[in-house]
Amino acid sequence: MGRYVIRRLLQMIPVFIGSTFLIFFMVYALGDPVAALFGDRAPDPTTAAQIRRELRLDQPLWQQYLHYMGQIFQGDFGTAFNGRPVTELMAESFPVTLRLTLVAIAIEVTVGVVLGVVSGLRRGRAVDTGVLFLTLVVISVPTFVTGYLLQFLFGVRWGVIRPTVSTEAALGELVMPGVVLALVSLAYVTRLTRTSIVENVRADYVRTAVAKGLPRRHVITRHLLRNSLIPVVTFIGTDIGVLMGGAIVTERIFNIHGVGFQLYQGILRNNSPTIVGFVTILVIVFLLANLVVDLLYAVLDPRIRYA
């Protein structure tokens, strides 16, 4: 197991370098950060040249990238155009988005797996048809439509929740945004769980467990569900990064100042240091989440061993 973890960590290095260089290239080579810094005003050529020298934008792109990577390993992600260090923006926004993501993951896993198991065990019945129909509707409706609808109904019409989240972003205030963020992923988890249950319910090991006289609950939880969750865990592992990076719409609807808000502001103002810094952290989240998923395979299926 130890050698496998080390090997996976080494494999993550070229992926990290390639991903960050691609992000760096798209942001700095395809745009002009100095022009974005001045907005609609045309910068003085002398001033613009001086800023480019200070930001090392007059150097070749590969040299800029090496300098940026050197700063990252020193804990310096640069300075945003508003004068604040990017690490300071991260310290404010990432805890908020992390809480929102954890709420969404908890809803996605709990509700999605339960609905998938119920639907899979009752294949072809009214419950199965209803669940499949509802998940199809959820997948088909855009997130911004669902978000504004739930915000209007629960926040404005019925007054059950606050229409917008406060600056503290308490855990209780993130329940409705978490539902909105998790809905599409919840539908996919439900369908994946349902498909896995249907495939495994007639497997030999399930029939053997039933023939031994084991209780139905024991067969479902200890045997059927455990093997059926492998594709679900794979999806959830990759979905963590997707939820953190894709929370832009949800955070805009509920006025949450998290990662999505900072990325939106960075893209809107072409704030290159903010965009590159935040996306770099999201790449690390993706890589670590996939590593954890691979290690969970051995927990779910004892036949899987890592050398």
Main sheet overview: none
CATH topology name of the largest domain: MetI-like fold
In the CATH hierarchy, what is the class of the largest domain?
A: Mainly Alpha
Secondary structure tally, helices: 14
Please report which band the strand proportion falls in: under 5%, 5-15%, 15-25%, 25-35%, 35-45% or over 45%: under 5%
How many angstroms separate the termini? Answer: 6 Å
User: What is the approximate shape?
Assistant: globular
The CATH superfamily of the largest domain is: MetI-like
Record field, number of beta strands? 0
What oligomeric arrangement do these chains adopt? single chain
Round the Cα radius of gyration to an integer and report it: 24 Å
CATH architectural type of the largest domain:
Orthogonal Bundle
Secondary-structure class: mainly alpha
Give the tally of structural domains: 2
The parts where pLDDT drops under 50 for at least 5 residues are: none
Tell me what you see in this structure:
The protein folds into 2 domains: 2-72, no CATH class; 92-269, Orthogonal Bundle (MetI-like fold), CATH 1.10.3720.10. With 307 residues, the chain is an all-alpha fold. Helix content is 75%, strand content 0%. It is globular. The mean pLDDT is 85.
Keywords:
MetI-like fold, 2 domains, single chain, 307 residues, mainly alpha
Nutshell version of this structure?
With 307 residues, this protein is mainly alpha-helical. It has helices at residues 2-28, 33-38, 45-54, 61-72, 86-121, 126-140, 143-157, 175-200, 204-211, 216-228, 230-245, 248-253, 259-268, 272-300.
